[in-house]
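dumping the sequnces here before i forget
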Amino acid sequence: MLAVNFLLLAAVLFSIGVYGVIARRNAVMVLMSIELILNSVNLNLIAFSLMHGVADGQVFALYVIAIAAAEVGVGLAMVLMIYRNRRSIALDELSEMKG
Amino acid sequence: MSAVILAAEGVNVAQNVAFGIIAAFMIFAALSVVSSKNVVHAALWLVIVLAGVAAQYILAAAEFVAVSQVLVYIGAVMVLFLFGIMLTRAQIGKEFGLNNSAWPLGIPVAVVLFGLLAWVILDAYEDDVLPDPGGPTPTEALSDQFLSIYLVPFLALSFVLLAAAIGAIVLARKD
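..and the predicted 3d for all of it:
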């Protein structure tokens, strides 16, 4: 299998995730797009691990999975708190810190 | 392009076909995640993407990572997402206003980003063939790494997870 296959698939997923982060207004859907981005990076790490024949890439991928789980937990807790205070999770309405 | 890939030397055709089928499903599901009008459907499309990623890991001989992906992402993170949707939405079905007013701006950004990434990748790794793994990576290899040179980050990671768990409880608690 060519290395380019994996890397191009990861690039496609990354771009779709970036589009989701830019386009979406709902905070939960932005978090889902961030998951797409993290998964594409993991695919790259696994492909490079296979390419060089060492397990380091897989170790990094497991770290990324664990950090992503922590990020989703804290992120959704913040979204819940925003929803409780404002009855809405639309990101463009959160503009108090705008200068 | 696929004909070129299949004709390259040292390439396992069956592996490539499986890769292509799974990749097509994943890309379609990822596009559905970012374009769906229904939040719950988007979460369920995300399950397809995550399962596809796990399948690609198995094709790349990373079995332990694939199993972790299924356990952590499909098992835990998706349940968390569905709970988050349930607790922030009273509405079932299609809804409007899921996108920003400036959402078309995302399309050129994504296309340009993909073009740039694809150019760099094709330039750097055009003919590199992934070696045939000849079986799954032994989990001992991973545990040897985790418990030797990556021990300090591993311990730091456990503190990060503990801090995240406590932080999520403190943030989401009702007072």
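Chain B touches chain A through 88 residues (CB under 8 Å).
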